[in-house]
Amino acid sequence: MTLYEFFLFRFPRIPESVWRERFELHKVHFDDGGPIRLDTPYQANRRVCYYREILNEKTIPFAEEVLFENDDFLVADKPHFLPVHPVGNYVNETLITRLRTKYGHKELGNAHRIDRLTAGLVLCVKTHAKRGLYQRMFKEGSVKKSYLAAGKLPAETGRTRWHIQARMEPGEDSFRMKTVPGGPVNSESFIELIDRRNGVGLFHLRPVTGRKHQLRVHLCAIGSSVLNDPLYPDYSDPEFEDNYQRPMKLLAHRLEFTDPVTGKPMEFKSNLEQGFR
Q1: Taking the model in full, what pTM does it have?
Q2: How far is CA 6 from the centre of its chain?
Q3: Domains annotated on the chain, with CATH
Q4: CA separation for the pair 92, 83 (Å, rounded)
Q5: Which tens digit of pLDDT belongs to each residue from 171-195?
């Protein structure tokens, strides 16, 4: 009957006492600023906002580095374990929140995403007005992205190049992805084995599309997997504890694009490459 009841239903893992406090402190409101009270009737197709807090949020003990900045965007080198934006148990310990706090860019937002456990380059746009220009580059595939990954050697020991085209869908557990036969292809990657040592391979990966967990799943498709990946090919607990001594060995290594505002060619390279080579 009420929006308060809807929040209790929609977010059952958050205690009722927490939602009651947020409503009473006016931390839940309509997107036009209108207040929402405990007895405000449920209204379909309305956009609502709430201020989310995490008690005793865990500090991520690794720092990001800004590699480049101009009037429109900046490029950050994100460490392993740091989320790009608020999600799950992280609000303040995210790349976007850290950069907003440190540099004062209140409208700063990411133009694309990489996984929390993946390190490397993230392009962030300083204003809402221009964010769409940079997001469109990624959606249209005009950005050249390349990654480095350390993983187990595939069974085909004589092969060094793969072109993966597959259909990916969510798995039965919803938070992992899988390749499925049939249907239109929706993911594509080029993979090259560029070095090997002690049973471990160093791979150069170039994704053409940007599906969730795409490179991790495509490496599994060739009989490999990223070192220290807690989800692929197998997992034991979806809410695993981070092991800071064993980061997942996947790095967003390079970005190349033509700046949609200035028309200038841009190229960036992560400083975290040494840990892979």
Answers
A1: 0.83
A2: 28
A3: 3-50 (no CATH), 147-250 (3.30.2350.10)
A4: 10
A5: 887 789 999 998 899 999 999 999 9
